[in-house]
Write a structure and sequence with these properties.
The structure is a single chain. With about 180 residues, the chain is mainly alpha-helical. Helix content is about 75%, strand content about 0%. It is built from eleven helices and no strands. The termini are far apart.
Length: about 180
Protein backbone atom coordinates (compact mmCIF):
# COMPACT_ATOMS: atom_id res chain seq x y z
CA UNK A 1 0.00 0.00 0.00
CA UNK A 2 2.71 2.50 1.00
CA UNK A 3 4.97 1.48 -1.87
CA UNK A 4 2.06 1.85 -4.32
CA UNK A 5 1.21 5.29 -2.90
CA UNK A 6 4.80 6.42 -3.35
CA UNK A 7 4.86 5.11 -6.94
CA UNK A 8 1.58 6.86 -7.73
CA UNK A 9 2.80 10.16 -6.26
CA UNK A 10 6.13 9.87 -8.08
CA UNK A 11 4.42 9.05 -11.37
CA UNK A 12 2.26 12.18 -11.10
CA UNK A 13 5.23 14.38 -10.17
CA UNK A 14 7.57 13.05 -12.85
CA UNK A 15 4.84 13.25 -15.51
CA UNK A 16 3.90 16.82 -14.56
CA UNK A 17 7.28 18.30 -13.66
CA UNK A 18 9.89 16.06 -15.22
CA UNK A 19 12.69 14.21 -13.52
CA UNK A 20 14.91 17.18 -12.73
CA UNK A 21 12.18 19.30 -11.15
CA UNK A 22 10.67 16.57 -8.99
CA UNK A 23 12.05 16.29 -5.48
CA UNK A 24 11.92 13.32 -3.14
CA UNK A 25 10.53 15.45 -0.31
CA UNK A 26 7.63 16.62 -2.49
CA UNK A 27 6.95 13.10 -3.72
CA UNK A 28 7.07 11.80 -0.15
CA UNK A 29 4.69 14.54 1.02
CA UNK A 30 2.29 13.72 -1.82
CA UNK A 31 2.32 10.08 -0.70
CA UNK A 32 2.00 10.97 2.99
CA UNK A 33 5.36 9.47 3.95
CA UNK A 34 8.87 10.67 4.71
CA UNK A 35 11.70 10.99 2.20
CA UNK A 36 13.61 8.41 4.27
CA UNK A 37 10.85 5.88 3.61
CA UNK A 38 11.01 6.61 -0.13
CA UNK A 39 14.75 5.95 -0.01
CA UNK A 40 14.15 2.76 1.97
CA UNK A 41 11.82 1.39 -0.71
CA UNK A 42 13.62 2.65 -3.82
CA UNK A 43 17.17 3.53 -2.76
CA UNK A 44 17.24 6.95 -4.42
CA UNK A 45 15.39 9.30 -6.73
CA UNK A 46 17.00 7.45 -9.64
CA UNK A 47 15.71 4.13 -8.33
CA UNK A 48 12.24 5.58 -7.92
CA UNK A 49 12.26 7.04 -11.44
CA UNK A 50 13.50 3.72 -12.84
CA UNK A 51 10.55 1.92 -11.21
CA UNK A 52 8.07 4.52 -12.49
CA UNK A 53 9.27 4.19 -16.07
CA UNK A 54 9.47 0.40 -15.84
CA UNK A 55 5.75 0.36 -15.06
CA UNK A 56 4.79 3.14 -17.47
CA UNK A 57 6.57 1.68 -20.50
CA UNK A 58 5.67 -1.97 -20.00
CA UNK A 59 3.61 -3.13 -22.99
CA UNK A 60 3.84 -6.87 -22.42
CA UNK A 61 0.05 -7.06 -21.87
CA UNK A 62 -0.41 -5.70 -25.42
CA UNK A 63 2.10 -7.81 -27.30
CA UNK A 64 1.19 -11.12 -25.72
CA UNK A 65 -1.32 -12.93 -27.86
CA UNK A 66 -1.97 -13.52 -31.51
CA UNK A 67 0.42 -11.60 -33.75
CA UNK A 68 -2.32 -11.37 -36.39
CA UNK A 69 -4.28 -8.98 -34.14
CA UNK A 70 -1.31 -7.03 -32.74
CA UNK A 71 -1.80 -3.99 -34.99
CA UNK A 72 -5.45 -3.70 -34.02
CA UNK A 73 -4.71 -4.14 -30.29
CA UNK A 74 -2.06 -1.41 -30.40
CA UNK A 75 -4.29 0.92 -32.42
CA UNK A 76 -7.28 0.33 -30.16
CA UNK A 77 -5.30 1.20 -27.01
CA UNK A 78 -3.95 4.34 -28.66
CA UNK A 79 -7.41 5.52 -29.74
CA UNK A 80 -9.56 4.38 -26.80
CA UNK A 81 -7.02 4.08 -24.01
CA UNK A 82 -6.90 1.29 -21.49
CA UNK A 83 -10.14 0.25 -19.86
CA UNK A 84 -8.66 0.32 -16.36
CA UNK A 85 -7.30 3.84 -16.60
CA UNK A 86 -8.17 7.30 -17.74
CA UNK A 87 -5.20 9.62 -17.36
CA UNK A 88 -2.61 6.82 -17.14
CA UNK A 89 -2.63 6.45 -20.92
CA UNK A 90 -0.83 9.76 -21.20
CA UNK A 91 1.79 8.96 -18.54
CA UNK A 92 4.46 7.39 -20.80
CA UNK A 93 4.16 10.27 -23.24
CA UNK A 94 4.32 12.87 -20.48
CA UNK A 95 7.33 11.16 -18.90
CA UNK A 96 9.14 11.26 -22.24
CA UNK A 97 8.20 14.84 -23.06
CA UNK A 98 9.02 16.24 -19.63
CA UNK A 99 12.18 14.26 -18.92
CA UNK A 100 13.83 13.38 -22.25
CA UNK A 101 15.88 16.59 -22.31
CA UNK A 102 17.51 15.68 -18.99
CA UNK A 103 20.49 13.43 -19.85
CA UNK A 104 20.24 11.07 -16.87
CA UNK A 105 16.47 10.69 -17.22
CA UNK A 106 16.72 10.27 -21.00
CA UNK A 107 19.21 7.43 -20.56
CA UNK A 108 16.92 5.71 -18.06
CA UNK A 109 13.95 6.08 -20.41
CA UNK A 110 15.98 4.77 -23.35
CA UNK A 111 17.09 1.76 -21.31
CA UNK A 112 13.53 1.02 -20.23
CA UNK A 113 12.21 1.42 -23.78
CA UNK A 114 14.87 -0.98 -25.05
CA UNK A 115 14.08 -3.56 -22.38
CA UNK A 116 10.31 -3.23 -22.02
CA UNK A 117 9.14 -2.20 -25.45
CA UNK A 118 11.61 -2.58 -28.25
CA UNK A 119 13.18 -5.92 -27.34
CA UNK A 120 9.86 -7.55 -26.43
CA UNK A 121 8.14 -6.19 -29.51
CA UNK A 122 11.04 -7.24 -31.76
CA UNK A 123 10.84 -10.78 -30.36
CA UNK A 124 7.15 -10.83 -31.20
CA UNK A 125 7.75 -9.54 -34.75
CA UNK A 126 10.58 -11.87 -35.69
CA UNK A 127 12.06 -11.80 -39.17
CA UNK A 128 14.38 -9.31 -40.84
CA UNK A 129 14.99 -5.95 -39.19
CA UNK A 130 12.71 -6.83 -36.26
CA UNK A 131 14.41 -4.31 -33.96
CA UNK A 132 14.16 -1.52 -36.51
CA UNK A 133 10.52 -2.38 -37.21
CA UNK A 134 9.75 -2.44 -33.48
CA UNK A 135 11.36 0.99 -33.12
CA UNK A 136 9.32 2.29 -36.05
CA UNK A 137 6.12 1.02 -34.41
CA UNK A 138 6.93 2.75 -31.13
CA UNK A 139 7.90 5.94 -33.00
CA UNK A 140 4.62 5.88 -34.91
CA UNK A 141 2.60 5.29 -31.74
CA UNK A 142 4.46 8.10 -29.98
CA UNK A 143 3.77 10.49 -32.84
CA UNK A 144 0.11 9.46 -32.93
CA UNK A 145 -0.15 10.00 -29.17
CA UNK A 146 1.28 13.51 -29.46
CA UNK A 147 -1.10 14.47 -32.26
CA UNK A 148 -4.18 12.73 -30.81
CA UNK A 149 -3.82 13.01 -27.04
CA UNK A 150 -1.81 16.19 -26.60
CA UNK A 151 -2.33 18.49 -29.58
CA UNK A 152 -5.80 17.19 -30.51
CA UNK A 153 -5.43 18.19 -34.16
CA UNK A 154 -8.74 18.91 -35.84
CA UNK A 155 -8.62 15.95 -38.25
CA UNK A 156 -7.96 13.44 -35.47
CA UNK A 157 -10.26 15.07 -32.93
CA UNK A 158 -13.17 15.07 -35.38
CA UNK A 159 -12.56 11.60 -36.78
CA UNK A 160 -14.72 8.67 -35.78
CA UNK A 161 -12.69 6.58 -33.34
CA UNK A 162 -13.27 3.29 -35.14
CA UNK A 163 -12.00 4.87 -38.36
CA UNK A 164 -8.83 5.94 -36.54
CA UNK A 165 -8.36 2.37 -35.27
CA UNK A 166 -8.64 1.02 -38.82
CA UNK A 167 -6.24 3.56 -40.33
CA UNK A 168 -3.67 3.27 -37.55
CA UNK A 169 -3.83 -0.53 -37.52
CA UNK A 170 -3.36 -0.68 -41.30
CA UNK A 171 -0.31 1.51 -40.99
CA UNK A 172 1.16 -0.58 -38.13
CA UNK A 173 0.61 -3.80 -40.09
CA UNK A 174 3.26 -2.68 -42.56
CA UNK A 175 5.93 -2.99 -39.87
CA UNK A 176 4.42 -6.05 -38.20
CA UNK A 177 4.00 -8.19 -41.30
CA UNK A 178 7.24 -7.50 -43.19
Amino acid sequence: MTRAAILEAATRRFACQGYEHSGLREIAADAGVTAALVNRYFGSKEGLFAEVIEQAFNIRYLIEGDRATLAERLARVMVYGREDTIERDRIPLLLMLRSATEPQAAEMIRTSLDRNNLRQLAECLEGPDAEIRATMIIAQLTGFAIMYQMLRTRALAEAEQERLVVILARSLEIYINQ
